[in-house]
Amino acid sequence: MRMLLIGPPGAGKGTQAERVAERYGIPAISTGDIFRANVSQGTPLGLQARDFMDRGAYVPDELTNALVLDRLAQDDAAEGFLLDGFPRTLPQVFTLDECLAGQGGSLDAVVQLVADADEVVQRLLKRAATQGRSDDTEDVIRTRLEVYREQTHPLVAVYAERGVLVSVDAVGGLDEVTERIFTALHGGVQHSS
Ligand code: AMP
Q1: Using one digit for the tens of pLDDT, what is the confidence trace for 136-181?
Q2: CA-CA distance, 35 to 67, in Å (whole number)?
Q3: pLDDT-based confidence at 119, cuts 50/70/90?
Q4: Strands (E) located in 22-105
Q5: Facing residues of 167 across strands?
Q6: Which atom of ligand 1 is nearest to the CA of 60?
Q7: Separation CA 118–CA 132 (nearest Å)
Q8: Residue 111: phi, psi to the nearest 5?
Q9: Which terminus of the chain has fewer Cβ atoms in its 10 Å neighbourhood, N or C?
Q10: Of 186, 180, 38, 164, nearest to 100 (Cα)?
């Protein structure tokens, strides 16, 4: 199973990615987590990424693509993976396409987590209070939502056109949303007409 989760910040991608990946026995690969680990370890990649992350901007495609290609080349991703937070731009979509074509594969499913802006802002502010992520301040949250709307939301249409998109209502309890994802995946991907 090669799949990805797409949705605005605060839609619950990280939590749901872990659950879905566990069920399928595939690694959940979160570019945000990889960047944060590099920032906290002070690696050269972390030093380059930190400024963008703290502003709520995307890390440049060259850096992000290199990181993902490296991660997908690792053994545990050979039979499948769940990408959380990648691709977020059209050039990243093309990079992933090329990588998968090189392996003779393609994406099996793209799960869109749908939640409106009010809902995700509330969730992110709550997370700010409990987890203290440096990019969860109100100003940065607003920037991240705007960047998502402009750069990432258009990818939903790209994957819908390819017939691999399923959309899931992400408002509800964690278990409820997880079940909706499995139901949507088992029901098969919707082919757009
Ligand atoms: P996330 O944990 O997925 O919300 O990601 C946190 C931050 O990491 C984002 O706001 C970006 O600055 C950076 N980031 C994560 N994934 C990507 C990506 N695919 N492209 C560019 N920047 C990313």
Answers
A1: 788 888 899 999 999 999 999 999 999 999 999 999 999 999 999 9
A2: 9
A3: confident
A4: 28-30, 81-84
A5: 112
A6: 21
A7: 20
A8: -100, 120
A9: C
A10: 164
Determine the distance separating the centroid of ligand 1 and the alpha carbon of 34, expressed in angstroms.
9
132: CB partners within 8 A, 6+ apart? none
User: To 10 degrees, what angle do helices 61-72 and 44-55 make?
Assistant: 120
Kindly report the pTM of this predicted structure.
0.92
pLDDT of residue 98: 95
d(CA 176, CA 22): 17
d(CA 174, CA 182): 13
Assigned fold of 2-186: Rossmann fold (3.40.50)
CB 135 within 8 A of CB 144: yes
* Max Cα distance, the chain (Å): 48
Per-residue pLDDT at 188: 58
The residue whose CB lies within 8 Å of the most ligand 1 atoms, and thus the one to mutate among 13, 18, 83, 88, is 88
